[in-house]
Design brief:
This protein is an alpha+beta fold and 314 residues long. The protein folds into three domains: 92 residues, no CATH class; 127 residues, no CATH class; 59 residues, no CATH class. Helix content is 46%, strand content 8%. It contains 14 helices and four strands. A four-stranded antiparallel beta sheet has the order 1-2-3-4. Strand 2 and strand 3 form a beta hairpin. Helix 6 runs antiparallel to helix 7, helix 7 runs parallel beside helix 9 and helix 8 runs antiparallel to helix 9. The structure holds zinc ion. The site of zinc ion has 8 residues, from helix 3 and helix 4.
Length: 314
C-alpha cells in the first residue's frame, strides 16, 4: 500500500531539525527490515540502538517508536525516517527533496511571470491558505492545529521564495499579506505561537528587497495606505512609499493644513518629458512622488534627479 502522504507533506509540517535527522538516518541506510503490514509500515531503525517503529499508511504522524521521544507520544526522527522510506522506497533523495522552506526569502531574480504562471501561483497560494484555518477544536488538538499553521506558512514560504521579482509578483505578495491579515483579525485564526505573524514580517522583508531590485515594486504598496493591520506590519512598507502624507496630498486630497493640493501645480521637469516612461500609468505614482519630493527646490529644471530615467531616444 502506498502512503497517503508525500514528501512535501512531511517537509512542510515537521520541524527542520527532526526532518534533517530523519534524512540522515534514511541516507545512512539506518531504516532496516521495512515491511508493509495491514495499513501500517513496520521497520527497525538503527539509532543509538535498534528501535522497532510503526507508521500508519494514512498519516505519517500516526506512529509508534520505542525511543524516549516516541514513548512520550511525540513525533521522532525514527518515525519520520520510516515515513520517508515508505515514500522513496530506498531511492536516493534529490537536493530538491531535501530542500526545506521555513521562511520566505527573496529569489533575487528579476523576471516576469506569464499570465498563465500568475494564475497558477494564485491557485497554489489559495491551496496553502487552507492550512491557515480558524481554531475551533478542544485544547488537546492545539498542537496539531499549530502544526497546520506551520505547514501552511511553510508551503507559502516555498511559493514566495521561488517567485521572480517584479511589480506583479510584488502585487501578489501584498494581496497575500492582506489575506493573512484578514484571517488573523477576523478569520478566527489563533496565532498565539506567532507563526503567521512571523511569516508576515518575513514577507515584508522580502518586499523591501523587491523594491531595491525593482523600484516599481513599490506601486502595489498603495493598497496598504489607510489600512489598519493586526500589528502594524504595513508601516515599514508605507515608509518606503516615502513621505506618505505628501503622496496623499499629491492624489488631490488634503495636505497637513487641510488645504487641497492641486496636482497640476506640480512642475513637470524637462527630464520627465524626455523619459520613455513619461505618461505611463504604472509608473505614475513613483514619478509623482519623485517630482513632488523635489518641488520648491531651486532650479528644478536643472537639478531634478531621477534614478529611473530612461531616454526616449536610443
Ligand atoms: Zn523514535
Amino acid at each position: 500500500m502506498s502512503p497517503k502522504y508525500d514528501l512535501d507533506k512531511i517537509k512542510f509540517s515537521v520541524d527542520q531539525a527532526t526532518f534533517a535527522k530523519a534524512v540522515a538516518l534514511y541516507e545512512n541506510h539506518r531504516v532496516t527490515k521495512f515491511e508493509n503490514l495491514y495499513g501500517n509500515y513496520s521497520a527497525v531503525v538503527l539509532g543509538s540502538q535498534p528501535y522497532q517503529v510503526r507508521v500508519s499508511c494514512s498519516r505519517y504522524d500516526e506512529a509508534d517508536c520505542e525511543c524516549y521521544v516516541g514513548q512520550n507520544e511525540t513525533l521522532c526522527k525514527h518515525m519520520v525516517a520510516v515515513a520517508i522510506y515508505a515514500i522513496k522506497k530506498g531511492k536516493s533523495l534529490t537536493d530538491k527533496d531535501k530542500k526545506v522552506f521555513d521562511q520566505p526569502v527573496c529569489s533575487g531574480r528579476v523576471d516576469e511571470l506569464t499570465e498563465k504562471e500568475l494564475e497558477a501561483i494564485k491557485g497554489l497560494i489559495t491551496d496553502s491558505m487552507k492550512y491557515i484555518k480558524p481554531y475551533n477544536g478542544p485544547s488537546r488538538l492545539w498542537f496539531s492545529y499549530q502544526n497546520s499553521l506551520t505547514e501552511g506558512c511553510n508551503r507559502l514560504a516555498k511559493i514566495v521564495s521561488e517567485l521572480p521579482v517584479d511589480q506583479q509578483t510584488a502585487n501578489i505578495l501584498v494581496d497575500l499579506l492582506l489575506r493573512l491579515d484578514k484571517k488573523l483579525t477576523m478569520g478566527g485564526v489563533d496565532d498565539s505561537d506567532g507563526t503567521v505573524g512571523c511569516f508576515i514580517e518575513e514577507t515584508v522583508q522580502v518586499l523591501k528587497e523587491y523594491v531595491e531590485l525593482d523600484s516599481s515594486c513599490v506601486v502595489p504598496f498603495k493598497k496598504l495606505i489607510g489600512r489598519e493591520t493586526c500589528f502594524g506590519w504595513e508601516e515599514s512598507l508605507l515608509k518606503i512609499i516615502d513621505k506618505q502624507k505628501k503622496w496623499r496630498n499629491m492624489q488631490g486630497y488634503f495636505n497637513d493644513d487641510g488645504q487641497p493640493v492641486d496636482m497640476k501645480a506640480i512642475e513637470m521637469p524637462e527630464l520627465c518629458r524626455k523619459c520613455r516612461k513619461y505618461g505611463a500609468k504604472d509608473e505614475e505614482i513613483i514619478c509623482n512622488l519623485n517630482r513632488f519630493d523635489q518641488q520648491g527646490e531651486t532650479e528644478i529644471e536643472h537639478d531634478f534627479i531621477c534614478g529611473a530615467f530612461e531616454s526616449k531616444v536610443k
